[in-house]
What we know:
This protein is mainly α. The chain has 11 helices and no strands.
Amino acid sequence: METNPVSNVSSVDRRGAEAIVEAAGRLFFAPGSMRVSMDDLARELGMSKKTIYRHFPDKRSLLTAVLDRQFAAVERTLTAAAEDAEGQPFDVRVQRFLIAAGTELERIGAAQLATGRGGDAMLRQYVEQRVDAVIYRRIDDLLQDGHRRGLLSAPPELLGEITRGALERLFTSRLPYELDWTAADLLRATVDTVLYGAIRSTGPAFDGERLGAVIPTARDDEKEVSP
């Protein structure tokens, strides 16, 4: 789906376009906002729908502009996470990036958008493409780097698919409720499982055995699970 950046939507009132995008992001992508209409947006902004349509010809183009804004924020967060982990051991870099990526995906509701929110197939495809470009390709690059350095005991392509499936599935799973874990604990446990089941330890080990991962539980976050 081709989109125009907000700066190109209207040469008459760029600030007005940005205000519309900001308000649309609050309304259309908030929990329980499946039926928010352009009329609702116009009331929120105190302007007519005609004014909104002067900037955005239809709801799809407006939603795309909102998504562009959200994914730009995701990119900034992930870039900062990668920079903060620069120079750290490989497993720390992967862990920090995956947790940041999972947090951002959950924040923008990417899984729900990609699986049918709004009933717009083209919009769903656009969300999938942006998630792939902004998040999953970066994960793939990071895993490929680990492979080149001899730090992975499994193909990076396989680890990439496992990671994608885990992140997406967690956001629609009932496990946080069933296990009485917080979403953050569940994500950390998943990341630890991927990391320590795949990355060879570069530190002391006994005859090549992998070091165990610390997996948080509902009642004892410090309990160690033997490999």
